[in-house]
Specification:
By secondary structure, the protein is mainly β. It has 1 helix and 23 strands. β11 and β12 form a beta hairpin. It is elongated.
Length: 283
């Protein structure tokens, strides 16, 4: 699953308050109109989803430009800088909010297996545009730079599938000759019952994978075993392969949720075995 981690701003327009106390009268506070963008929390753990609500309390429409409003910054040594390079084409107006409108965003801190936003302190930087007559940024009357509230991202402490799984590939021998059968044994060990997964086994590639299997398998707690065979063709067979070294790969692919992480067809365990195919039987 290929995702990005983004965060908008909260409390970006400074409130101006006038407070006055008249004799024998209660204190009165006058709040200026504001645009508020709030995250649901200020502390997250890797793999959490960040929920953001944007509320336009101004008396005019506001616009977000495609290249400006999604720049994630990280604090390093008390200095703010871009968290990662953002590639963007032509800068155009991509979002608008009318007065009184709000919009919710759901943003991920995990992109794929073992691929998270680094822990640390973050904020979002972007430009807000006003008075735009069309989708061209040049048509806008003005723009200002805004920053989100800061938020903390901590390292994930719960185990992932990669931590509770192991997989191995073994063959009955290291070397084979033509017209011999390669016997492959795949073993999957799991500390927990993870349910159904897809086991892909392929290899001995010569033009194509001579072993090429994809099957749904159940992975309970403990050890699970799967066996495969491949008969090497005769040297003069049309389907024969060259002598040399070949690899046999096994990948366990998972779709589902584990410890709060949703896996979307991701490889969570892999192993490889090399074999050698030599010349025919000794004379």
């Amino acid at each position: 699953m290929f995702l990005i981690v983004l965060l908008l701003f909260a409390g970006c327009v400074q409130q101006e308050a006038e407070q006055g106390v008249e004799q024998e009268e209660m204190e009165t506070t006058v709040m200026a109109e504001e645009l508020t963008i709030k995250t649901d929390k200020v502390e997250y753990v890797q793999a959490d989803t960040i929920s953001i609500t944007v509320m336009n309390g101004l008396d005019r429409e506001v616009h977000f430009a495609s290249c400006d409003y999604l720049v994630l910054e990280k604090e390093v040594w008390n200095k703010w800088g871009p968290s990662s390079e953002k590639r963007c084409g032509k800068n155009r107006i991509s979002h608008s909010l009318a007065p009184g409108e709000s919009k919710e965003f759901s943003l991920e801190t995990r992109w794929s297996a073992n691929n998270y936003l680094d822990s640390g302190t973050y904020r979002e930087r972007f430009s807000l545009y006003f008075g735009c007559s069309d989708s061209e940024v040049s048509s806008c009357e003005s723009n200002s730079t805004y920053y989100s509230n800061e938020f903390e991202l901590e390292k994930r402490k719960l185990p992932e599938l990669e931590d509770v799984l192991n997989i191995s590939v073994e063959t009955d021998r290291e070397e084979y000759r033509f017209e011999e059968t390669v016997k492959v044994h795949v073993s999957v060990g799991s500390e927990r019952n993870i349910g159904m997964a897809t086991l892909d086994v392929e290899g001995i590639r010569h033009g194509c994978d001579r072993i090429d299997s994809s099957q749904r398998v159940k992975i309970p707690a403990g050890e699970s075993s799967f066996d495969y065979e491949y008969l090497i063709p005769a040297a003069d067979d049309n389907l024969s392969i060259d002598i040399g070294l070949y690899g046999i790969n096994a990948d366990l692919i998972y779709d589902g949720e584990f410890e709060g992480i949703v896996y979307d067809g991701e490889v969570v365990a892999s192993a490889m075995k090399r074999i050698e195919i030599t010349e025919g039987a000794d004379s």
